[in-house]
From TrEMBL:
<dbReference type="InterPro" id="IPR042070">
    <property type="entry name" value="PucR_C-HTH_sf"/>
</dbReference>
<dbReference type="InterPro" id="IPR025736">
    <property type="entry name" value="PucR_C-HTH_dom"/>
</dbReference>
<protein>
    <submittedName>
        <fullName>GAF domain-containing protein</fullName>
    </submittedName>
</protein>
<feature type="domain" description="GAF">
    <location>
        <begin position="75"/>
        <end position="226"/>
    </location>
</feature>
<dbReference type="InterPro" id="IPR041522">
    <property type="entry name" value="CdaR_GGDEF"/>
</dbReference>
<dbReference type="Pfam" id="PF13556">
    <property type="entry name" value="HTH_30"/>
</dbReference>
<dbReference type="InterPro" id="IPR003018">
    <property type="entry name" value="GAF"/>
</dbReference>
<dbReference type="InterPro" id="IPR051448">
    <property type="entry name" value="CdaR-like_regulators"/>
</dbReference>
<dbReference type="Pfam" id="PF13185">
    <property type="entry name" value="GAF_2"/>
</dbReference>
<dbReference type="Pfam" id="PF17853">
    <property type="entry name" value="GGDEF_2"/>
</dbReference>
<comment type="similarity">
    <text>Belongs to the CdaR family.</text>
</comment>
<dbReference type="InterPro" id="IPR029016">
    <property type="entry name" value="GAF-like_dom_sf"/>
</dbReference>
Length: 641
């Protein structure tokens, strides 16, 4: 029997933390040598079990502490880094790293490392089915090796082998991170020397990986929830902005509709849009001239030297679609332009300056609708202008007709347009191409000189109260030239002593304009009275004029007709060249001897004295009239061109 003291001494020997148990002195003296050796073996086994349980308790404590710490993290990147650090401390291996599994591509990428020295290892990508990591993912159980490079059971890949060799890794243990039915990744513990991983190490790393997988999935779900919440907040903010923009657009549309219904103008459209966007707005007409500005200064967004090439290019780009086009430039040029079109007809453009309000889809649509409203206003104004043109044209025609019975009605109609019939004294006929006639007519009416502008038989006519027709013609010509690039001919008729004489003055100016345009003289301001001699001849009856031409140069014309020659051209050039053979030769681009021979032939036809001043004057007039008649017959009436 052992005494109490001997039992206590034996228990102390068992719980001692020394690796080599000391002999049980008191007990050992009472036992034989074989019994004492057996007792020491039993004490050693019990000590090993107690040490293993102590270590397991420490590992479990560290495991639970790590799991608790990881559960408090909410950022995925931070969580992965901390997870790898804890696993590194827990197993005490040389290197610990985590590879994230991308299920759709069936590949793994290293996301976090601890203990690595080679930077390329942190960007390692594991192709599908390769390496120890793919084996862990596909089997969903831990995999380990003591000699990675020599292990033929692992699918080797040159890139992976090079990264492992560069890091000097020899033994590796990988455990899966499994959450539900998904593999999130693989957690690795590796040493740079040969090492056989014990079941306890595998179990410990697996337990840690199981906790980490749950925390990682929870964190991922929380991040997704936060992302969804943020997206919802952004969507609500966008929705609120869109609602505000839609309300603003609706208000602008109502205001623009009111502008149209009230017979408003481009100024009202510009003011409405500028107030809604808090930006400068300029509206251009079909001639690229500003007709309305809001918050944009004197000439608005159209510079004093005209629109830049960038702005014109943006307007041209907008014309086919009528959509907003952004201009790649800064202030003072516009930020956005949109063409004002009605079908295929270009009516102008809306220019939007820079401002604080962002031009989103709703704002751009509002600008485009404003351009449509501007087109509607322009078409409406065009219709009114055309109606007014017809009314003014009828009034001008009635005044020039000089019907005394209609005088009271003419006085009333003229007074309705701020014109006093009895004060009209000057008539100016304006010759312009048909396509520019309306533009010039609008410009002359806008000049506001108290004149009456209209058309008579397709001829643009100005009736002015000023007593000097030539002064009126010069001002009319200057105004028209500013409005169009086409040639402009302003012909002043003789001063009219009364309104009843305006018709005669018009006829003189009209015939002079026809004469000058037949001569291809379609530019400038002229006095019809200066061309009175030509008007007297050209205004006679066609039969009498033909007889005059035949009596003067008939032999030459018949000679050309019978023989297919062109002595008439030589005769005409001789008259235009002041009876100089040398100048005639230069004008006809022939040798002077040729001209001399032709002149001798003409002498034989017209007689010896045809070069005398008086006959030559009649010949010159006949050739000029012959040329005018032929040109007039070929081109048609001058006022129709």
């Amino acid at each position: 029997m052992l005494s109490v003291s001997e039992v206590l001494e034996l228990l102390d020997a068992v719980v001692a933390e020394s690796d080599t148990p000391e002999p049980a002195t008191t007990v050992g003296t009472a036992l034989s040598a074989d019994d004492a050796a057996a007792l020491e073996g039993r004490i050693r086994n019990v000590r090993d079990s107690l040490a293993r349980w102590r270590r397991r308790g420490q590992e479990l404590s560290a495991l639970f502490s790590s799991a608790h710490e990881l559960a408090e993290l909410r950022d995925t990147d931070t969580l992965l880094d901390r997870l790898v650090e804890r696993a590194h401390d827990l197993l005490g291996t040389d290197v610990t790293y985590l590879s994230e599994f991308h299920e759709g591509r069936d590949e793994l990428r290293v996301r976090s490392t601890s203990g690595t020295i080679d930077s390329s290892f942190r960007q390692l990508r594991v192709p599908p089915g390769m390496g120890l990591a793919s084996k862990v993912v596909h089997t969903r159980v831990p995999q380990w090796t003591s000699t990675y490079q020599q292990n033929d059971d692992i699918p080797h890949e040159p890139g992976i082998d090079a990264a492992v060799a560069a890091e000097g890794l020899v033994s590796l243990l990988g455990v899966p991170l499994i959450a539900g039915d998904r593999v999130l990744g693989v957690l690795f513990a590796a040493n740079r020397s040969g090492h056989t991983f014990t079941p306890d190490e595998v179990a410990l790393l697996s337990a840690f990986a199981n906790h980490a997988a749950v925390v990682l999935q929870t964190t991922s779900l929380l991040e997704q929830a936060r992302f969804a919440a943020d997206e919802a907040d952004r969507a609500r903010a966008v929705l609120a902005d869109n609602v505000t923009a839609m309300e603003r657009a609706s208000a602008v549309h109502e205001d623009l509709t009111a502008v149209v219904l009230k017979g408003g103008s481009a100024e009202g459209v510009a003011d409405t849009l500028s107030g809604a966007l808090n930006r400068p707005v300029t509206i251009l007409d079909r001639d690229w001239e500003p007709i309305a500005d809001a918050l944009a200064g004197a000439r608005g967004l159209a510079a004093a030297d005209g629109l830049s090439g960038r702005v014109r290019g943006a307007i041209a780009e907008s014309r086919p679609s009528g959509r907003c086009v952004f201009v790649d430039s800064g202030a003072p040029e516009p930020e956005v332009v949109v063409a004002v079109v009605a079908g295929d007809v270009f009516l102008g453009a809306v220019l939007i300056g820079h401002g604080e309000l962002e031009l989103g889809a709703v704002e751009q649509r509002t600008i485009e609708r404003t351009a449509q409203i501007a087109a509607l206003v322009a078409v409406q104004q065009d219709a009114v202008a055309e109606a007014e043109d017809r009314v003014r044209g009828e009034l001008v025609s009635d005044i020039l007709r000089g019907d005394a019975l209609q005088r009271p009605d003419l006085v009333r109609r003229a007074r309705a347009r701020d014109v006093r019939l009895d004060e009209l004294r000057s008539v100016v006929v304006v010759g312009v191409p048909a396509e520019a006639r309306r533009t010039v007519s609008v410009a002359l009416r806008r000049a506001g000189s108290g004149a009456l502008v209209g058309e008579r038989d397709g001829v643009l006519t100005v009736l002015s109260p000023r007593p000097e027709p030539n002064d009126v013609a010069r001002e009319v010509w200057a105004t028209a030239r500013r409005a169009t690039e086409a040639p402009v001919l302003a012909v002043a008729g003789p001063p009219a002593p009364s309104a009843a004489a305006l018709g005669e003055s018009f006829e003189a100016a009209r015939r002079c304009a026809q004469l000058l345009q037949s001569w291809q003289a379609s530019e400038g301001a002229v006095d019809a009275q200066a061309y009175e001699p030509y008007l007297a001849v050209f205004g006679s009856r066609q039969r009498d004029l033909s007889r005059f031409i035949d009596s003067v140069i008939g032999p030459v014309l018949r000679w050309d007709e019978e023989r297919g020659t062109d002595l008439f051209a030589t005769l005409s050039a001789f008259a235009e060249s002041h009876a100089s053979p040398t100048r005639t030769a230069r004008a006809l681009h022939v040798h002077i001897n040729t001209v001399t021979q032709r002149l001798e032939r003409i002498t034989g036809l017209l007689g010896e004295g045809w070069r005398e001043p008086e006959p030559l004057f009649r010949i010159s007039l006949a050739t000029r009239m012959r040329t005018l008649i032929r040109r007039h017959a070929t081109d048609g009436p001058a006022d129709a061109r």
